[in-house]
Amino acid sequence: MPEGPEIRRxxxxxxxxxxxxxxxxxxxxxPLLKKWEKxxxxxxxxxxxxxxxxxxxxLDNGFNIYSHNQLYGRWHFCDTGxxxxxxxxxxxxxxxxxxxxxxxxxxxxxxxxxDEILQHPFLCKLGPDVLHHSTTEENVxxxxxxxxxxxxxxxGILTEQSFIAGLGNYLRCEILFYSEIHPxxxxxxxxxxxxxxxxxxxxxxxxxxxxxAGITNQLSAANKLIKQGAAFEEARFYVFRRQGLPCYRCxxxxxxxxxxxxxxxxxxxxxxx
Length: 273
Ligand SMILES: [Zn+2]
Fold this sequence. Notes:
Elements: H1 4-18, E1 25-28, H2 37-40, E2 45-51, E3 54-59, E4 63-68, E5 74-79, E6 90-96, E7 99-104, E8 108-113, H3 114-118, H4 137-144, H5 154-157, H6 169-178, H7 192-212, H8 219-227, H9 232-235, E9 255-259, E10 262-266
Antiparallel strand pairs: 1-6, 2-3, 3-4, 4-8, 5-7, 6-7, 9-10
Residues 247, 249-250, 252, 267, 269-270 line the site of zinc ion.
């Protein structure tokens, strides 16, 4: 599933394609949403916001289109009339003054007015967003030490969107490797240095990934690997999907195990405690 940085990049593309334009035509694939087509036609698209892995397209008529790509949703951008041949189900098509944005396969789409969107059952449960500039290292430390989270294993809470929004499995693995923390450790057991290193990684790794289209590895190391002929997928991560390969820091073999229901990748030496 795409994580916060990937969704924010899609939102940037969607904003570039549609923001400031008037909706000439909008079509929903899900029958329940068809009633909105008339109401949204003619509205101006103001901007596209992200909340963790959810995307909110804000319109100037007081309404908002909420969408969550989940596992299969894909946006496609093209000129109006130049729709691709696709076997995927077209769930949303927005045509704005010659530009189009098409959302395929997503089933989690809704329309809300400005008051309702704040009450959305998914959005109102989200923790601070890792990509929002208002989220600081101090906010994250506070959250890590809160009664609700301090005695729970970090491997479990990092992907909970109510703890902090925007992290998924690759970011969880990379953050814990960078912070040299075993996934079964609880934040309440960390000393101050490790706690701050972890809080810093929780914000900085997703932000770097957003800026670099997916690199969480040390940038200079990733670029060197790519120059030496490594594929992007081989160079971008410290540990994610690198089981059986040597750790870039210590040379120990990266391992894979199940952790909180998902594959977890780690260095048994760097993350021994
Ligand atoms: Zn290591």
